[in-house]
Design brief:
Blueprint (H helix, E strand, L loop, with lengths): L2 E10 L19 E15 L2 E5 L4 E4 L3 E18 L14 E11 L6 E10 L4 E7 L3 E7 L2 E5 L2 E5 L4 E4 L5 E4 L6 E10 L8 E3 L12 E10 L3
Length: 227
């Protein structure tokens, strides 16, 4: 059975004057999991580890996880790599908690070894990611701006909050709009030899020497053992 990479969007409401901070009613089950804080702040705990995460920060855990939002609430991108999704699809529950299974995709993975990478990619207005491939599959979620993606002759326009899957070996050409920057968060499953290294390979010789306008921020490169 293939592995499944899925993205949940968890929105925790701001704290009202008459109640405590919004939190999940029950811990999330253990799995290979990465959290990215798209908005607000969140306190997370799993196993012996705990952290308070600000906006644009990430966290990895294989343990059962609890989440509590800051006073102003939080929006989390929750990426999970699993074998068989549980019956309730991993939806988080709680008063003031809204959870959406934004996207899931099957990955054909062999014995590895692999790493799980959480990063962010930013492009200036009109920025182009020239035709390229990656060394592994992953799910992206647009944080701001807009994005157009051309692959296998099809062009798709992405709006903030929308997610898409790239298999890795399929050539992709991507562009930010001319009038505003774009940024997306991403989790990929990559060969472990790429820890701290780029996974991208440009396909057209004329693009090799061109300036690359995109900026990468790697939050976590975590070696993993497949479930």
């Amino acid at each position: 059975m293939p592995h499944v990479l899925r993205l949940f969007t968890d929105t925790l409401a701001p704290r009202a004057a008459d109640r405590t901070a919004t939190r999940f009613d029950r811990p999330l089950p253990s799995c290979l999991r990465m959290l990215y804080v798209a908005e607000g702040m969140a306190a997370v705990a799993g196993g012996a580890a705990a952290a308070t995460l600000s906006q644009s920060s990430g966290w990895f855990s294989t343990a059962s996880v609890t989440v509590r939002a800051g006073a102003d609430g939080a929006k989390l991108l929750r990426y999970e790599l699993v074998r068989t999704p549980e019956a309730d699809h991993g939806l988080a529950l709680g008063d003031g908690v809204a959870t959406e299974l934004t996207l899931e995709a099957e990955l054909a993975l062999d014995g590895g070894p692999y790493l799980m990478r959480l990063d962010k990619v930013e492009l200036p207005p009109g920025g182009i990611a020239y035709r390229h491939v990656h060394q592994g599959g992953g799910i992206r979620c647009l944080l701001l701006g807009g994005f157009s993606i051309e692959t296998e002759g099809h062009v798709k326009t992405i709006a903030p909050g929308e997610a898409w899957f790239e298999r890795g070996p399929d050539p992709v050409l991507a562009r930010a709009p001319e009038d505003k920057p774009a940024a997306f968060a991403r989790v990929m499953i990559l060969p472990r030899a790429l820890i701290g290294k780029s996974s991208i390979r440009y396909l057209d010789p004329e693009d090799q020497a061109k300036p690359k306008p995109q900026k990468y921020t790697i939050y976590i490169d975590q070696p993993i053992e497949l479930p």
